[in-house]
Design a protein that fits this description.
GO terms for molecular function: oxidoreductase activity. By secondary structure, the protein is an alpha+beta fold. It has 5 helices and 2 strands.
Length: about 100
């Protein structure tokens, strides 16, 4: 499948099957999320993986009263940093310099 064709394909899950996805697949999704481009390349968010059934029920009740929230095996919550300032950018640059991404 070529790149543009892959981008044209979309699917919105109406309901979940209740099956748990393998950890290796979750790890691959999280790695793709980590590598995805973002504003200024800073990745100004943290991805929280929620799989605890009682917490999923609470999230469904409070935030998104949709069955997919409690039917999924893992809920990915993007916690965005809203206060990007110079010290945070400096820290990001320092961490990047200390731990460069292998090519």
């Amino acid at each position: 499948m070529d790149f543009l064709k892959a981008l044209h394909w979309r699917y919105a899950a109406k309901r979940m099957s209740g099956q748990r996805i393998p950890e290796s697949q979750l790890d691959r999704i999280l790695e793709a999320t980590h590598l995805a481009p973002s504003s200024y390349g800073l990745q100004p968010y943290v991805v929280k993986v929620i799989s605890d059934r009682s917490l999923l029920a609470q999230i469904r009740e409070e935030a998104a009263p949709q069955p997919q929230v409690t039917e999924c095996s893992h809920l990915l919550v993007f916690a965005t940093m809203t206060n990007l300032n110079d010290p945070l950018v400096d820290q990001f640059i320092q961490l990047t310099a200390e731990h460069p991404t292998p090519v």
